[in-house]
Queue: 2 jobs
Job 1
Amino acid sequence: MNFLIAVHEILIAGGIWANTIGGKAVLGFGVVWWSAATVLSPVAAKLGLPFLLSVHAFMGIGEGVAMLAMNNICRIGFLFLKEVDHLHWCIVE
């Protein structure tokens, strides 16, 4: 449940962040954040349930921004291809 709450809470902020500083930077942040949470999961599980739930919430932040950053990267890539502009609206919007 903490994971889902974190993902949904970061969606709007992650989308604004991806549009502001770029999808590649946000995707890089998401991958590093998500990987760090994955590495910390066994340690948190050993410490107890509250720690594990906190780490899973942090993992949700990393995953939440990843999808938005990928959409931003695809949107910018498709803007240069006029013949697939209709595909752009199906994927991004």
Job 2
Amino acid sequence: MDMKEIRKLSVVSIKERVVDIRRAIFNINCQRKMDAQSEAAKRLKFLRKDIARLKTELSSRRLARS
């Protein structure tokens, strides 16, 4: 997910997306404990970056309102 897509989302949608990604990270971590997968590690990296992008957009919107 890139910043252009994120900017089009509403605040509620961004928050929902963060929750969904956190659930996905939790599930991947549970799977990794059962068997080591390098693909899961790559997926985690991208999911963490998506959360960072979403939170950055939320904070910039919050600052713009102030």
